[in-house]
Design brief:
Rossmann fold, six-stranded parallel beta sheet, single chain, 3 domains, alpha/beta, about 25% strand, elongated, about 400 residues
Length: about 400
């Protein structure tokens, strides 16, 4: 056998989930070679498959590079070794060659057994202590924390494509085509939302201001009113434009119903911001009956939590907006805990930020009129996302209508 070689194993639904294909592609793309030593293909739908593969390279550096990628696709070394740990030398500092996490379920081989890594998120590190292993962001690292370095002893378990049933994720896969029939997709999305809520699953919407611009605000408000949304994650703009529309009928000075410019409409969004400051908060606006409809109104009335994360471009921002980005990130993460379905609509930056916080077993639907926005989110690593390229102003009312029919 080649001196620079490693025998790896991989098991699961290798064919359906394209895991084996991805491993072969990675080896070839990195100019390595492989030999399948053993393979067993499951004969029934629920059966898993198994493969033992010899990976060969020209030198140790090339082999290490190939192994790093194939391990992240779910492969493990035939002869497993324990993880390697190094201590952090100061707060908020990871050791060199730290293991950078994916959002897939991950295990580490520690003290002669596999243990699960908790709190999985992408682009973090793994801290090990007496309580187990946990995915930790760099800002939470403390001096002397024991951190996993290298790829040795780490096992990634990518989610597998389901083989039973016919929900929207099986129908669409992880596509982002704008050419599929919109009404049919809306019906499938509605069915999946309805099913998730019927099973008492937590549904979160990550929402951008285009929801209001395109006339979909009423549909989202209705979904909240009907109990299909458990939390709203957004920025300053969604709340401002929603309140502007609810109180003045415009969004950035444009009449939402007919698309015409309102007289002196250029000042309306600032007028909306001022009205919230006058009340003291969005909740007080509702309490004093200055705000009587809309997304924010329904959140307050139904006690649905919302987090508004600020940015440098915000007007105001509203008193409810969290301007400390670290605090906002923490609040987002708290809201996302135990989520079963996350719907991301017309907000690239908030969607990517949210996607980075989600484990891969959480279903994600991302809707945007711009194909690059959808694909960029999926390319960032949120591979489980269902991408729908569509006008949210047309798509969301269809989804809401289908949900109402199911009720």
């Amino acid at each position: 056998m080649n001196k620079f070689s490693q025998v790896i194993e991989v098991s699961g639904h290798l064919i359906d989930s394209l895991i084996l294909t991805k491993i072969f592609d990675v080896i070839m793309d990195l100019k390595g070679e492989f030999q399948v030593l053993e393979i067993k293909i499951g004969k029934r739908k629920k059966d898993t498959s198994y493969a033992k593969i010899s990976v060969q390279a020209r030198n140790q550096k090339q082999l290490d590079e190939i192994l790093e990628f194939v391990y992240r696709e779910g492969a493990t070394a035939k002869l497993q070794k324990e993880i390697k740990l190094k201590k952090a030398t100061k707060n908020m500092l990871m050791p060199d060659n730290f293991y950078s996490t994916t959002n897939n379920q991950t295990q580490i081989f520690y003290r002669k057994k596999w243990i699960n890594v908790e709190n999985m998120m992408m682009d973090k590190c793994i801290v090990v202590n007496s309580r187990g292993a946990r995915c930790v962001p760099i800002k939470d690292i403390k001096k002397f924390d024991k951190i996993v370095v290298g790829e040795t002893g780490v096992r990634v378990n990518p989610p597998e494509r389901p083989r039973e049933g016919m929900n929207v994720f099986e129908f669409m896969g992880s596509s982002s085509s704008s050419e599929r029939p919109t009404r049919h997709i809306a019906k499938r999305v509605a069915e999946d939302i309805y099913k998730t809520k019927k099973e008492k699953g937590k549904i979160i919407i990550v929402a951008g201001p285009a929801i209001v611009h395109t006339g979909a605000s009423d549909s989202v408000a209705k979904l909240i009113h009907l109990g299909f949304i458990d939390a709203v994650l957004a920025g300053n703009a969604l709340a401002v434009h929603d309140i502007e529309y609810a109180t003045l009928g415009t969004s950035l000075g444009m009449n939402v119903n007919d698309g015409t410019l309102a007289i002196r409409g250029h000042r309306n969004h600032m007028d909306a911001i001022n009205s919230v400051f006058k009340a003291g908060s969005i909740a007080n606006m509702v309490k004093t009956k200055k705000l009587k409809k809309g997304i924010m109104y329904e959140c307050v009335k139904r006690k649905i939590p919302f987090v508004l994360a600020g940015s440098i471009r915000d007007d105001g921002p509203l008193p409810d907006v969290i301007t400390d980005i670290s605090v906002a990130q923490k609040k987002y993460k708290e809201i996302l805990k135990d989520a079963k379905l996350v719907i991301m609509v017309a907000t690239m930056l908030h969607s990517i930020a949210t996607g980075n916080m989600l484990p891969a077993n959480v279903k994600v639907i991302v809707v945007d009129i711009n194909q690059p926005t959808v694909t960029k989110l999926m390319d960032r690593g949120t591979w489980q996302a269902l991408g729908i390229v569509s006008d949210v102003g047309a798509f969301l009312p269809l989804v809401t209508h289908e949900i109402e029919k199911l009720k």
